[in-house]
Design a protein that fits this description.
Largest sheet: 7 strands, mixed
Radius of gyration: 18 Å
Function: Necessary for normal cell division and for the maintenance of normal septation.
Helix content: 25-40%
Number of domains: 1
CATH topology: Rossmann fold
Family: Belongs to the TRAFAC class TrmE-Era-EngA-EngB-Septin-like GTPase superfamily. EngB GTPase family.
GO molecular function: GTP binding; metal ion binding
Cofactor: Mg(2+)
Distance between the termini: 31 Å
CATH class: Alpha Beta
Oligomer: single chain
Order of helices and strands: EEHEEHEHEHEHH
Shape: globular
CATH superfamily: P-loop containing nucleotide triphosphate hydrolases
Strand content: 15-25%
Number of helices: 6
Number of strands: 7
GO cellular component, one term: cytosol
């Protein structure tokens, strides 16, 4: 398997210091129940390494997943969970802002938005925080499989307009179910993390593995005679 080692190496809470790591980091932010853990599992090619739940607010810490000793995928706490007290929300917000402001190895932030809905006030606030800390976030429009193909462009435009994106800002429609958008996501992770050819070759293999897996799934379905 190309991704040989995945390790939840660092977990920090609201009272913890931001760790000084030596590997490049890419972070993933989004409101509760936007599909962040599912996306991270898809990137790691693991079904349930990052804990997923139908109950929002599952991620309450900042989790650092070490990938092949090459980089960290950083899972930030979900925001906007209504059943959490305002004081807890404020603490989570400060923790996220502190990480964005002080991490020396953070290379890029991917902001997840549910493609079915207009960006919320919390989505816009998070977008502004990310920009204010010197990043132009990659927007990942999740739950692509939940809408009709004919609705995709309309909803992409809704998300872009809601966040006030520029024409050159990147938005990737993504489905954790079909893995559509996964290859493009890896290419962007690649572009922000690469330091040398060894890392480049490893991530290229990850992308190739995703392609081959998708081809195998198509061939298996075709060969089964299914008429879905």
């Amino acid at each position: 398997m190309v991704i040989k080692n995945v390790n939840l190496e660092i977990v920090i809470g609201v009272t913890s210091k931001i760790p000084e790591t030596t590997l490049p980091e890419v972070a993933f932010a989004g409101k509760s129940n936007v599909g962040k853990s599912s996306l991270i599992n898809a990137l790691m090619r693991r079904k349930s390494y990052a804990r997923t739940s139908s109950q929002p607010g599952k991620t309450q810490t900042i989790n650092f997943y070490n990938i092949n000793e090459l980089m960290y995928l950083v899972d930030l706490p979900g925001y906007g969970y209504a059943k959490v007290s305002e004081s807890v929300k404020a603490k989570w917000g400060k923790m996220i802002e502190k990480y964005l402001r002080t991490s020396k190895q953070l290379k890029q932030v991917f902001l997840l938005i549910d493609i079915r809905h207009d960006p919320s006030a919390n989505d816009k606030m998070m977008y502004d925080w990310i920009v204010e800390n010197g990043f132009r976030p990659i927007i990942v429009a999740t739950k692509l499989d939940k809408i009709k193909r004919s609705q995709v462009q309309k909803q992409v435009k809704t998300v872009r307009n809601g966040l006030g994106l520029r024409k050159e800002d990147v938005l990737i429609p993504f489905s954790s179910e079909t893995k559509q958008g996964l290859e493009e996501l890896w290419k962007y992770v690649d572009s922000y993390v690469l330091e040398d050819e060894a890392v480049d070759e490893t991530i290229d293999e990850m992308v190739d593995e995703t392609k081959n897996s998708k081809i195998a799934e198509v061939e298996e379905t075709t060969g089964s005679g299914s008429e879905d």
